[in-house]
Every structure is written in C-alpha cells, then in structure tokens.
Design a protein that fits this description.
two-stranded antiparallel ribbon, 16 helices, about 450 residues, alpha+beta, twelve-stranded mixed beta sheet
C-alpha cells in the first residue's frame, strides 16, 4: 500500500507562504513549550498537549485521529514504528499534506488517521472515520459560533444529519471490483491506498472538511490558510424568523454544489409557513430574483428540491440551462445534474387554461422529476426509471405526494434589470390574491415572454 512513503521536509515547507509558515511555527511552539532541548527542531508535543490546546473545540476522537496521523508520518521511510510524540518535521509534513496536498497526499495521512497497521483498511473503518469527520465539522462550527443563522440539527436520530452526509460522501467510495459503498455486506471489504486516493479525489468535501477541522480546531489565524466559507449567511428578514427545512449540514452540502459567490448569503424568498399555502404568493415572491434553491418536505418526511440557475419567469415555456439540478436532502443526500437528453430545466406557469399550471423541473408535462401543482400542497415526482432531464430517481416517498412545507432561497442578489422587470402584481403578491379572489383571470400572465437571464457568463 505504500504507507511508508517518505516525506521531504524542506520541500513540504516551501509550499507555505512566509506568513503561513510563521503561523504554523507559532502553533507548534504553543504545543511544545520547553520540550526537548532549546532548539525548535528537537521539540515535540504529546497527545495530551494537543488535547489541552484544542480544548472542547473538537471531539476527543478527532483530536486523537489527527495526532495519530501526524505521529505516524515517516519522514525518512525507515521508522520501525510510530513515535509517541510529534516532531516539528512530522507536524509540518502532515499540515502540508492535509492543507496543501493533492488526493494522493491527503490519502496517505487519512490512512494513518484510520489505522496504525500496514496494509488495506476495512470499509467499515473508513465509514467510522467519515462519520467522525462530518461530526467534527458540525461540532467545531457550533463551538466557534459560526453557524451564520442555521440550526445545528433538524432531522431525528442520534446521528441522522451526520450519518446522511457521511453516507453521501461514502457513496463516492469505489471498492475493489467496482462495488459501491455503503451496503452493509461490504463493510468488511478491503480498501487499499489506491481506493482511498480515488475516493478523496471523487469526494472533494473530504479534503475541505479536514481543512476546516484543522483551521477552526487549531485556530490558524493566517487568512491564506482559511478555507472558503462552508455556510452562507442565512437572511430571513425582519419579523420572519421560521424553522428552515435546511440545517447546518444540509446547507453545507447544497452550498458545496454552487459557485463561490452563491455561497455568501441566502435570502428567504418564500416559506409556506410564513406566507401561506398559496401558489400566487409563491409566484409573486420568487420571480425575477436570480438563482434560487427550492425545497419541500412531503408528508412522509422526505426533503428534496431543485436549483434554478437563473430567475424564475411566469410563462408557458421551459426555461433555465444546464447548471440547474435536482437534489435530495432526506432520507438521503444526493444531487442530480443535466443528462443532456433534453432542455426541460425549469417551468413556471399560472392562470393559463391551455397549459399546465404549476412549478416543474425536469421530465415533461405530466411526468416531471419535480412538480408543484398550482393547487398548492400537492405535487408529483414521476421518474421511473429516472428523470430524463436530470437522471434523478423518484425524490418523494410517493409518486403523487402532499407536502407539509415549502421554501425558496435566493443565492444571489438580483441584478437591477431583474428588479425593474417585476410588475405591480409581482411585487405585491397580495394584489394578485385579491385579483384571484374577485374571480378575474390574468389572461396576460405568461404571454409576455421575458428575456432569458441564464448565461455562461458568471456576471450575467
């Protein structure tokens, strides 16, 4: 497996900028004060010193794994066994691999964090490591008070949120022979270094999570060592606080599917709990607002939705582009992207007699991958064997479903052009409701086709 691959200290140190190297030197000095001789190169630190420094910022199990990963680093490839403390060279090498390394280098340290033995590890051991890593990310964000408005855990069960996200990461683990994890009968299958390296490459969140655990757990202060924010700022608006269908880990997962600028601030546009069970309210609040995430929870507890890559328009034609996708949050996490089969990305129509009225994504009329009927509160996910547009399976528990709640989040600020396009009835959903209550039909709705704001240009 090659766990004894030697690491070159000077070469690894050169990866860090001067301010980064100074920050790591500061951290090592704090972990090893007065140990060894007066020379910094002969110093080392113990597991107890690391636990004392980290305190309650990380779970003890993750601190131990990080310590084991560092102390098992064999710089020369000749060590007879792991040391009982971590030298400066081992510390710098491990930090270089975990913070700056590629999939091959990260996999080397991950294997050392999992086991002290040479040879393959069991898939069950990788599962335990992954659940611990996801739990440590949630733990450190809570401890550092960096939830940015999100709640810690929404789903039931002792490890529900952690277990679901860990299972999603493990779904990228390709076992020898081509089997996919995590069916229980494969927990005893061997995973050698090539399998772990391929997994880290396929599941980049593993490396991101390790970086977050180290940076926030050890409180590295150098800005250039900070990973990109995992969580967007959650903005609901004055007097509109409501429990979201998203919690910390599901927001982290969905944010990872978006561009960097789309992970900065999410604005709640519509919540059925705040704005009522009204399709007119939904249309009035989400149109001309830029890219959006739409989620709903059916009455069987499944949480799923879709990402609209550009502003919703009320019109009887399909809209959107290949950056749209469907997703599931519970009971499993998954994202389903464009298959290339057709361009039925987004559809939103209301008040028409000759075309279906509702919100849909993927598939075709009557057989959407995700459909919210204008008779608000019901929909369907008809995707057998899979949605033609996104390749997604049935997202809801039942093909035709009733849902408990729906919400839509804008992930970008709308452009000025998008703002001025809104009509009086778009800006004021109550005006639309009054119009409907009077029995009058908006015959013009959907007939004025708006410009398509989707573009490959990120600035569009």
């Amino acid at each position: 497996m090659g766990n004894n691959k030697s690491l070159s200290g000077p070469k690894l140190h050169s990866r860090f900028l001067p301010e980064e190297q100074a920050e790591l030197d500061r951290l090592f000095a704090a972990l090893s004060p007065g140990t060894g001789s007066t020379g910094a190169s002969s110093r080392s630190f113990s597991l107890q010193a690391l636990k004392s420094y980290v305190g309650e910022a990380l779970p003890p199990e993750m601190v131990t794994r990080l310590f084991d990963g560092m102390r098992r680093v064999d710089l020369a490839g000749k060590a007879r066994g792991p040391s009982e403390s971590v030298s400066r060279e081992q510390f710098m090498a491990a930090m270089s691999y975990l913070l700056k390394g590629n999939a091959e280098e990260k996999s080397l340290v991950i294997l050392k964090m999992i086991t002290a033995t040479e040879g393959p590890v069991r898939a069950g051991e990788v599962q335990k490591f992954t659940e611990g890593l996801v739990g440590a990310v949630e733990h450190v964000l809570v401890h550092r008070q960096e939830l940015r408005g999100w709640t810690r855990r929404r789903f039931q069960g002792p490890l529900a949120g952690v277990g679901v996200l860990a299972a999603q990461l493990l779904s990228e683990l390709k076992l020898q022979g081509g089997q996919k994890f995590p069916e229980p009968q494969w927990l005893d299958c061997d995973c050698d270094r090539a399998v772990i390296e391929d997994w880290v490459f396929r599941a980049p969140l593993v490396g991101v999570f390790l970086s977050v655990v180290i940076h926030r757990g050890f409180l590295l202060l150098s800005p250039s060592l900070q990973p990109a924010p995992l969580l967007p700022e959650r903005h609901v608006g004055p007097g509109g606080e409501v429990e979201s269908l998203l919690d910390v880990l599901s927001a982290v997962y969905l944010g990872a599917q978006l561009r960097g600028e789309q992970r900065q601030r999410w604005r709640l546009l519509f919540s059925s709990r705040l704005h009522g069970q009204s399709f007119a309210q939904l249309c009035g609040r989400i149109t001309h607002q830029g890219p959006c995430l739409a989620l709903l929870q059916d009455r069987d507890g499944h949480v799923f939705g879709g990402f609209a890559s550009c502003s919703w328009e009320v019109k009887p034609q399909f809209q959107g582009d290949s950056k749209c996708f469907l997703f599931s949050i519970a009971p499993r996490m998954a994202v389903y992207t464009h298959t290339g089969y057709n361009d039925h990305f987004m559809y939103l129509n209301h008040g028409q007699q000759t075309m279906p009225n509702g919100l849909g994504m993927g598939g075709q009329h009557g057989y959407f991958g995700l459909w919210i009927d204008s008779d608000f509160g019901k929909g369907h996910s008809k995707a057998r064997p899979a949605c033609t547009t996104y390749g997604s399976p049935q997202l809801s528990a039942k093909e035709d479903f009733l849902f408990e709640a729906m919400e839509v989040w804008a992930v970008e600020e709308p452009s000025e052009l998008q703002r001025v396009k809104k009509s009086v009835l778009d800006v004021d959903p109550e005006a639309r409701i009054l119009l409907e209550a009077s029995g009058r039909t908006r015959h013009s709705e959907g007939l004025l086709e708006a410009p398509d704001y989707c573009s490959d240009d990120p600035g569009s």
